[in-house]
């Protein structure tokens, strides 16, 4: 058995796959076009630390993530902020993550009795079926058949969609409620997953430590996966020395789905299925100020669709002077054409209309994820099946990523684990 696996992409799916392969006695080579690992959960090195430029939080229930963290002996974790704040009806509303009677009453006033009952039923359904709301158990397929003929704005009260539901659709997929389907929403809602955590230092340290344990070739782009007679035959790889062919019989592609046609010559029906899986662009701004911007009671804000900012939060609960602004949603996408400085000033201006910034800015960094966040689509399981059926038809090819088992890093690792199992059990 060939135990050498070639992995395209050094994000969480790629490096997680390399980790699982090594534990199973397989070797791997990871190709990454950028100069550092991490992908869309990446980071920017500073002289005295890091800016985290993408996903950084993980849930207590992500067993694969904690397996890797424990293997790396990275166990110093911080809890995330204890409440969320949403702009509803033009006012900032605060809700604890474990809502008491006062918060429930406040939410009922803002989204109405109908919206409140719909929200309660949705949460109860998620909690009841949290272990079956995946693409293996069939429960998501039931939801798709019943609801995915129209987005959530056609099924739920307008105030509910513009408030709590938009919080989930924007944060997880950069999508507006009218771009989100109920199956997507149930899949991404973080109820029943346990408390959110983040590394005390930075997720950048996690990725660097993980990458150091494997053969990761940075600044190396895979231009083409070579397929002959429905079998993997090799790769066309380009680095500073030019392009060369690398012989390979087993390849794992962990790129975002919309990049898959760039490296594999796909049949037209597979290309059409890929187009059904949406990726919405976002920009993430890290900014530090001389003194605190957030307060102990307000460490995150979810904006409504009248703002270019989708949401923002303190980078850590003990670093209230360090702010992460996310430009997302329909209006946010319009602002991505601005320069970095213009984008920062726009974010600060909108933020200050809710919580005034009274301290000078020290430094900032803008990261534009133009490929964006995966927001799935209507009847996603049908598109997924077409894509996966093609992959199964090619001997030695596997895929992993945010479009298979879920949007978050934990789900990316679930997809990685499945791909690794297919290799190791072949």
From TrEMBL:
Task: Pinpoint the Amine oxidase domain residues.
Answer: 12-420
Q: Name one Pfam family in it.
A: Amino_oxidase
Pathway in which the depicted protein is active: Plant hormone metabolism; auxin biosynthesis
- UniProt keyword terms in alphabetical order: Auxin biosynthesis
> Which catalysed reactions does the entry list for this protein?
L-tryptophan + O2 = indole-3-acetamide + CO2 + H2O
- State which Enzyme Commission number(s) the record gives: 1.13.12.3
The record's InterPro entries line, in alphabetical order, gives: Amino_oxidase, FAD/NAD-bd_sf, Flavin_monoamine_oxidase
Q: Which domain of life is it from?
A: Bacteria
**SUPFAM superfamilies reported for this sequence:** FAD/NAD(P)-binding domain (SSF51905)
Please give the family membership noted in the entry: Belongs to the tryptophan 2-monooxygenase family.
Q: What is this protein called?
A: Tryptophan 2-monooxygenase
């Amino acid at each position: 058995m060939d135990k050498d696996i070639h992995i395209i992409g050094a994000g969480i799916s790629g490096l997680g796959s390399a980790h699982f392969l090594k534990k199973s006695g397989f070797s791997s080579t990871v190709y990454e076009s950028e100069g550092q690992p991490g992908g869309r959960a990446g980071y920017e090195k500073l002289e005295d630390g890091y800016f985290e430029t993408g996903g950084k939080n993980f849930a207590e229930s992500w067993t694969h993530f904690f397996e890797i963290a424990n293997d790396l002996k990275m166990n110093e974790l911080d809890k995330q902020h204890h409440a969320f704040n949403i702009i509803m009806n033009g006012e900032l509303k605060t809700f604890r993550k474990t809502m008491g009677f006062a918060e429930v009453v406040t939410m009922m006033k803002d989204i109405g009795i109908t919206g409140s009952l719909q929200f309660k039923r949705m949460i109860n359904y998620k909690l009841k079926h949290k272990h079956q709301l995946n693409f293996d158990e069939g429960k998501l397929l039931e939801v798709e058949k019943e609801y995915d003929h129209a987005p959530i704005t056609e099924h739920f009260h307008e105030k509910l969609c513009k408030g709590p539901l938009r919080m989930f659709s924007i944060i997880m997929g950069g999508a507006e409620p009218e771009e989100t389907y109920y199956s997507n929403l149930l899949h991404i809602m973080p109820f029943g997953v346990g408390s959110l955590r983040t590394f005390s230092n930075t997720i950048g340290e996690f990725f660097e430590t993980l990458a150091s344990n494997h053969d990761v070739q940075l600044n190396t782009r895979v231009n083409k996966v070579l397929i002959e007679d429905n079998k993997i035959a090799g790769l066309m790889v380009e680095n500073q020395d030019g392009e060369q062919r690398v012989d390979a019989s087993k390849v794992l592609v962990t790129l975002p789905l919309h990049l898959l046609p760039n490296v594999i010559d796909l049949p037209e029906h597979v290309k059409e299925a890929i187009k059904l899986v949406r990726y919405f662009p976002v920009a993430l701004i890290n900014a530090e100020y001389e003194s605190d911007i957030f307060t102990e009671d307000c460490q995150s804000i979810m904006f409504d669709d009248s703002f270019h900012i989708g949401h923002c939060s303190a980078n850590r609960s003990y670093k209230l002077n360090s702010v992460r602004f996310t430009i997302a949603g329909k209006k946010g996408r319009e602002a991505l054409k601005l320069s970095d400085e213009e984008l920062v000033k726009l974010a600060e201006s909108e933020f200050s209309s809710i919580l005034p910034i009274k301290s000078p800015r020290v430094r900032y960094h803008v990261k534009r994820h133009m490929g964006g966040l995966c927001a799935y689509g209507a009847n996603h399981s049908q598109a997924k099946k077409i894509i996966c059926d093609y992959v199964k038809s090619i001997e030695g090819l596997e895929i992993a990523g945010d479009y298979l088992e879920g949007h978050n890093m934990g789900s990316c690792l679930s997809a990685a684990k499945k791909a690794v199992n297919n290799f190791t059990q072949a």
